[in-house]
C-alpha cells in the first residue's frame, strides 16, 4: 500500500447532519440483474437521475451481488481492493479478505460508504473520533455481517475497522463510496494519531 503522510488535522466532529441513507431497507426495489454490468448500470442511473444514495443502498441489498465473486483475487499477505467501477459520482470496490486480515481504523474523508458481505463473514468495529491529542480511541460497537447483509457509515457516525474474523474461511465484500474515495485517514487505536494514505486499488 502506498502511504502518504500529512500533518495531523484538527479532529473536529464533522458538522453535517447525520445522513438518512441508513434508514430501514425495503424490498420495493428488486432489479432483475443478470450480470455485473447490469448492477453497475443501475447504480449509475441511481446517481445520474439523482434518486439518492438510499436507492443505491436498496439496489445493493436486493441485487444478486454474488455475480462479483468471480472477480475476486486473494493475497495471502493481506486484504485486496479490486476496482470494479469509478466515475465522478462513485466508485465500487470489491474487497477480498484472507483469513484473519483487517484494515486499520479509518475515516471516509467526506464520502458515504455502503458495504455488502458476499461470502464468509466480515466484522465492523466502530470508534468515536478522538477529541484530544494522545487519546486512545473509544469503541462504539461491533457488528458481524454475514452473506447478503448490508451496512453503511459516514464520518459523522464515526471511524471503523473492517476485518475477517475467521481463521479458516476467506471473505468477500462489495463497497460503494460516494463521492469516490481515493484516500483516507488511518488512526492509531492507542494514541489517536492519524496519517493520510492513498488507497491502493488493483
Describe the protein's architecture and organization.
With 202 residues, the chain is mainly β. It has a domain at 73-198: Jelly Rolls. It is built from two helices and eleven strands, in the order ααβββββββββββ. It has helices spanning 36-48, 53-62, and strands spanning 80-86, 91-97, 105-106, 112-119, 121-127, 139-146, 150-153, 159-163, 171-178, 183-187, 194-198. The protein has a five-stranded antiparallel sheet with strand order 1-2-9-4-7, with helices on one face. A three-stranded antiparallel sheet has the order 3-10-11, with no helix packed on it. Strand 1 (80-86) and strand 2 (91-97) form a beta hairpin. Helix 1 (36-48) packs antiparallel against helix 2. The longest helix is centred in the first third of the chain and has 13 residues, at 36-48. The model is unreliable at 1-31 (pLDDT under 50).
Amino acid at each position: 500500500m502506498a502511504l502518504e503522510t500529512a500533518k495531523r488535522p484538527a479532529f473536529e466532529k464533522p458538522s453535517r447532519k447525520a445522513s438518512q441513507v441508513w434508514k430501514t431497507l425495503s424490498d420495493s426495489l428488486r432489479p432483475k440483474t443478470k450480470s455485473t454490468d447490469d448492477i453497475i448500470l443501475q447504480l449509475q442511473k441511481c446517481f445520474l437521475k439523482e434518486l439518492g444514495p438510499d436507492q443505491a443502498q436498496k439496489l445493493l441489498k436486493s441485487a444478486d451481488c454474488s455475480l462479483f465473486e468471480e472477480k475476486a483475487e486473494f493475497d495471502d499477505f493481506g486484504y485486496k481492493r479490486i476496482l470494479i467501477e469509478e466515475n465522478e459520482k462513485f466508485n465500487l470496490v470489491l474487497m477480498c479478505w484472507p483469513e484473519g486480515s483487517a484494515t486499520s481504523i479509518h475515516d471516509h474523508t467526506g464520502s458515504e460508504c455502503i458495504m455488502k458481505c458476499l461470502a464468509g463473514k466480515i466484522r465492523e468495529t466502530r470508534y468515536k473520533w478522538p477529541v484530544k491529542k494522545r487519546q486512545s480511541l473509544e469503541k462504539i460497537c461491533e457488528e458481524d455481517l454475514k452473506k447478503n447483509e448490508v451496512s453503511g457509515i459516514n464520518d459523522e457516525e464515526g471511524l471503523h475497522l473492517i476485518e475477517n474474523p475467521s481463521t479458516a474461511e476467506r471473505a468477500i465484500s462489495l463497497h460503494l463510496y460516494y463521492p469516490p474515495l481515493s484516500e483516507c485517514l488511518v488512526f492509531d487505536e492507542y494514541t489517536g494519531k492519524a496519517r493520510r494514505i492513498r488507497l491502493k486499488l488493483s
